[in-house]
Amino acid sequence: MDVLVQSVRTWWSTASRGGPAAARRNAVPVGFLLPTPQAPLAHDVAVREADDFVPSSRWRAGLPEAGRTAP
Question: In what order do the strands lie in the sheet with 56-61?
Fold first, then answer.
């Protein structure tokens, strides 16, 4: 059985609740293409208002640790 985990988290403040910043926030995809390495794989995607909602991602072989939070 192959196991792939993708975690996508988006952070924003009240500044992104309206106007152009809200449009950028709402344009963030809910999923991303997975990297090519073989399973098991954990793929973390972080999208932050402070980075103008540009996604940053990292992946690692193996399963995510229990109770771990995104970067």
Answer: 4-11, 41-48, 56-61
Question: Are 64 and 7 spatial neighbours (Cβ–Cβ below 8 Å)?
Answer: yes
Rounded Cα distance between 57 and 46, Å, is 6
Contact 20, 53 (CB under 8 A): no
Tell me what percent of the chain is helix, strand and coil, each rounded to the nearest 5.
Answer: 20, 30, 50
What are 48's strand-pairing partners? Answer: 11
Tell if the pTM clears 0.70, that is, is over it. Answer: no
Tens of pLDDT, residue by residue over 25-35, are 899 998 898 87
Phi then psi for residue 20, to 5 deg, are -60, -35
Count Cα neighbours of 62 within 13 Å in the Cβ-side half-sphere: 4
Q: Taking Cα atoms as reference points, which of 11, 22, 14 lies closest to residue 55? A: 11
